[in-house]
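Researcher: I'd like a structural prediction for the single chain below. Treat it as a standalone chain; there are no partners to consider.
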Amino acid sequence: MLKIIKHQTSFILRQNMSLAVFFVLLSIVFLNFRSNVLAFQGSDIIEMYHPAKLLALSYDQVYNNMDIMLLLIQLYPILIVCPAGFTLLSEKKRKTDCVLIARIGGTQYYLGKIIAAFFATMIVFTVPFLIEFGLNCVSFSLAASGDFVDLNRYSPDYIELTSNYMFPALFI
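Model: Treating it as a single chain, here is the predicted structure.
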């Protein structure tokens, strides 16, 4: 079964559609990184946001760079289907699924195809955003603490206010 999953995953990853989706996501990541570098070049560490806030997937982007996030949200439904969805369609069109089902069995084929589709889509979507996080950590200071949403939870007033609760450590 592992051999089937490995073969199907490598087959899906070698498809042109998977590579196209990967490069679209990578271009979105590099576009976001470039705009972050241009926006924050020469900024003080006090004015900068934490590198995790500057990601394309960051929900609470507080600066004027929400265009890339909106682009990703609009393209997401199409991009999520492309890597594995068209592979099954092309196998049915070429009738190679009949050969594989006859050779390894229907249950193993479809189960292997579903697991391989999950792994291939996970790889295509995870690697560009891990690259972006690595680039942000290398390029921007990790000591920057600008605009954390829950930063006020660590203020002495808030800690004193919650110190009388039953489990005060849960509220910090």
